[in-house]
Amino acid sequence: QVQLVESGGGLVQAGGSLRLSCAAKGRSFFTYTMGWFRQAPGKDREFVGAISSTWSGGRTYYADSAKGRFLLSRDNAKNSLSLQMNSLKPEDTAVYFCAAGPRQMLATTTDATDWGQGTQVTVSS
Fold first, then answer.
1. Rg of the chain taking only CA atoms, in angstroms
2. Do residues 62 and 69 make contact, with C-beta atoms less than 8 angstroms apart?
3. Cβ–Cβ under 8 Å, residues 20 and 92
4. Which of 2, 3, 81, 121 is the most buried (most CB within 10 A)?
């Protein structure tokens, strides 16, 4: 198990950037696939992007809505995960959740075993 705490959310104008961070507590952080999901009001929680464990090559994959604009990275020495979000759009407005999963794939909510409490991202038009 890992305990996850997100930070870095806020209010930004369309076209701007934000960097979200996720701090993890747990000795096995490097074995987990880590990712981000988001949930807008009245909508289901949806996948944003994930990065596999070091053992699996640290491969990144993204939802189509995030490709070319968002960039994931992880620092196993610091037990941290980051999401750099550029060219933000109003439709990116949501609560963003950090997630961890034990398998190579982390693309649905059922793949995750641990969640952070979420951080609000609001993009104004």
1. 13
2. no
3. no
4. 81
- Note whether 38 and 94 are within 8 A (CB): yes
Eight-state DSSP code of residue 125: -
pLDDT digits (tens, 9 = 90+) for 44-72: 999 999 999 988 888 999 999 999 999 99
Amino acid at 104: Q
Give strand pairing partners of 83. Answer: 20, 72
What tens digit of pLDDT does each residue of 97-125 get? 999 999 988 999 999 999 999 999 999 99
